[in-house]
């Protein structure tokens, strides 16, 4: 029993089945960004996405007659604290929570990192650091550090929008805690030299944040009738054949082997920073197991293996991000 949880529950119901109480929400991540310059062109991008890993291989060409040095960054998805935290964070690391790794021409890059905590639009990083509070709102250690603060300091954090009172009875009497409520913004970055007239190959990988739901609304008879359903269909380009396949896959399943949703959001539009379009773009999406069902938006998609789908484009200008929906049996994911 918890006070203060009613608003969260109401929002979860209003958001639709993908954010029910037995769900985690995906955090959208994408590729590299940098200061726009006409000198550097992205001649190719080769992207691989699965529920376990995202890999990207870029080829950049400096088309000018001079070396160009610029800041290259990988913005991690923002993490927002909450009374009941539901966002999927794949790596238990306060800084590199996606397990980000990168190489340039095959050599590992020691990227720097910047983290900022904010609430109500105000940077509160120094304030939290001075109190000895970890900046990662998703960690149990952060809540423990908040609980250790003298209670006469609690109201100050609440007034700044940094914390929410969390009161409940877990069977041992009424408890009072603080839940983190700030936004954590993280970016890895480094200075990169692009030699005149030459190409540079940059590769990076990370673990995606995969949103999950125990069950799926797609198999329900009324799916597609509400405004929320229509937005969901548009986001993942869900076609009638996918709905039919999902309902067939759900029929007759054991009670403990229900269909689950897995959602991945890849921010493609970060690629629009580079000069012109991407000369050659290629993406491979792996649904995990042959029996899984997958739906996403794309043009010229080809099935290239039991679990893989690929699409390619030339002079590619990303106009929308890539959202992927995978349905899998609960037992097959264990």
Task: Explain how this protein is built.
This protein has 334 residues and is of the alpha+beta class. The protein has a single domain, classed as Immunoglobulin-like, CATH 2.60.40. It is 16% helix and 40% strand. The protein contains six helices and 23 strands. It has helices at 6-15, 125-130, 140-148, 154-159, 227-236, 240-250, and strands at residues 2-3, 23-24, 29-30, 33-34, 40-49, 54-62, 68-75, 79-80, 101-104, 107-108, 112-119, 122-123, 163-169, 174-180, 183-194, 199-206, 211-214, 259-267, 278-286, 293-296, 302-303, 308-316, 322-329. It has an eight-stranded mixed β-sheet, with no helix packed on it. Strand 9 and strand 10 form a beta hairpin. The model is unreliable at 1-21 (pLDDT under 50). Residues 20-325 form the DUF4424 domain. Keywords: Signal. It holds the Pfam family DUF4424.
Mean pLDDT: 87
Give the overall shape, derived from the CA principal axes: flat
Q: How many structural domains? A: 1
DSSP strand tally? 23
Distance between the first and last residues' Cα: 30 Å
Protein name: DUF4424 domain-containing protein
Keywords: Signal
Signal peptide: 1-20
InterPro entries: DUF4424 (IPR025538)
């Amino acid at each position: 029993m918890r006070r203060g949880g009613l608003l969260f529950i109401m929002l979860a119901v209003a958001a639709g089945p993908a954010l029910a109480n037995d769900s985690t929400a995906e955090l959208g991540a994408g590729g590299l960004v940098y200061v726009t310059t006409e000198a550097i062109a992205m001649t190719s991008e080769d992207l691989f996405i699965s529920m376990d890993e995202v890999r990207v291989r870029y080829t950049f060409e400096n088309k000018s007659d001079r070396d160009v040095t610029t800041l290259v960054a990988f913005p991690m998805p923002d993490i927002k604290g909450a009374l009941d935290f539901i966002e999927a964070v794949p790596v238990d690391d306060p800084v590199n929570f996606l397990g980000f790794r990168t190489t340039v021409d095959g050599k590992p890059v020691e990227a720097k990192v910047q983290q900022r905590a904010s609430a109500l639009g105000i940077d509160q990083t120094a304030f939290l650091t001075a109190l000895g509070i970890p900046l990662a709102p998703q960690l149990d250690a952060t809540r423990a550090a908040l609980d250790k603060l003298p209670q006469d300091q609690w109201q100050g954090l609440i007034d700044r929008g940094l914390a929410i009172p969390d009161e409940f009875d877990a069977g041992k009497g009424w408890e009072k805690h603080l839940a983190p409520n700030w936004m954590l913004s993280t970016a890895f970055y480094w200075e990169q030299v692009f030699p005149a007239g030459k190409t540079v190959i940059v590769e990076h990988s990370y673990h995606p944040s995969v949103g999950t739901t125990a069950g799926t609304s797609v198999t329900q008879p009324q799916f597609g009738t509400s405004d929320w359903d229509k937005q969901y269909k548009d986001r993942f380009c869900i076609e009638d054949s996918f709905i039919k396949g999902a309902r067939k896959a759900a029929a007759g399943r054991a009670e403990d082997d229900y269909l689950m949703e897995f959602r991945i959001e890849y921010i493609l539009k970060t690629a629009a920073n580079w000069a012109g379009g991407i000369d050659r773009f290629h993406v491979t999406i792996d649904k995990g197991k042959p029996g899984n069902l997958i739906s996403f938006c794309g043009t010229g998609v080809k099935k290239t293996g039991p679990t893989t789908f690929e699409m390619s484009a030339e002079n590619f200008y990303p106009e929308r991000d890539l959202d992927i929906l995978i349905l899998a049996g609960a037992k097959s994911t264990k």
